[in-house]
Write a structure and sequence with these properties.
Elements lengths: L1 H14 L1 H30 L3 H7 L14
Length: 70
């Protein structure tokens, strides 16, 4: 059923070039928005404070007078 719908959509777009150009423009806008979102997340990953991560990986030492149970 989807194949017939896609065939009719293709025929419609080929008969109406302005709609084809509009879809092309909308796909490029979507592409650049997704690239910007990916860039924001990559920026957040690579600007994370690395020294805080090394402090979290230290071993826990028992305080004097306490028993450390792992």
């Amino acid at each position: 059923m989807i194949e017939h719908w896609l065939d009719s959509l293709n025929a419609l777009l080929l008969q109406h070039p302005p709609l084809l150009h509009l879809m092309h423009t909308l796909f490029w806008i979507k592409h650049w928005i997704l690239m910007a979102i990916m860039g924001v997340f990559l920026y957040l990953v690579y600007t994370d404070d690395q020294p805080e991560l090394s402090n979290k990986r230290t071993t826990l030492e028992p305080l004097p007078g306490e028993v450390f149970i792992a």
